[in-house]
Amino acid sequence: LSVGKPRSLGIIAEDPQRAYVLWLGHRVWHQPVDVRWAGPASASAELLARCGGRAAPLAEALTADVVCVDVELTVELTQVRRGSHLTLVRADATPELAARAICVGEAMSGAATVTLGELAAGLRDGRQLDEITLLLLHGPAGLDLARRALALA
Q1: How far apart (Å, rounded) are the C-alpha atoms in residues 118 and 48?
Q2: Residue among 124, 120, 121, 123 at smallest CA distance from 112
Q3: Is the per-residue pLDDT at 135 higher than 70?
Q4: Percent of the chain beyond pLDDT 90?
């Protein structure tokens, strides 16, 4: 769902342990050279030492190639850049963002929605050029997906 070779990863989280699991889950699929941590978890020196990267303002983390948001936040279209992939665990997208993005997972009003199964089976196309993609994982499903991805690594 992300650009061909994502270089940056933004993680916005409150809890350092959850942030760490989400970081590990995303590292299964790509090796970012620029990791941007935002939110209260970025204050954890242990987390930064273990994972690398740097504490960054929310606005900068939201403009990474791949962004994972595990805080209660409504992400607006103007906060992300074209071509970004967003995994929204406890966050939501505005209707404007959802209308411009390809949404995977839960259905959003006005959004082009596909399932992971449809993508994996080749029944639906994934990313095309510089589209924004959203993976919607509300509740504990987000951490469950990250844990399953780690089991595959």
Answers
A1: 36
A2: 124
A3: yes
A4: 27
**pLDDT tens figures, 37-72:** 999 888 888 888 888 889 999 999 999 999 999 999
Q: How far is CA 142 from the centre of its chain?
A: 10
| Helices and strands (DSSP H and E) totals, the chain | 6, 10
> Phi, psi at residue 38, to the nearest 5°?
-135, 160
Higher pLDDT, 105 or 96: 96
Which residue has 């607006």 as its token pair?
Answer: 76
CA distance 89 to 140: 8
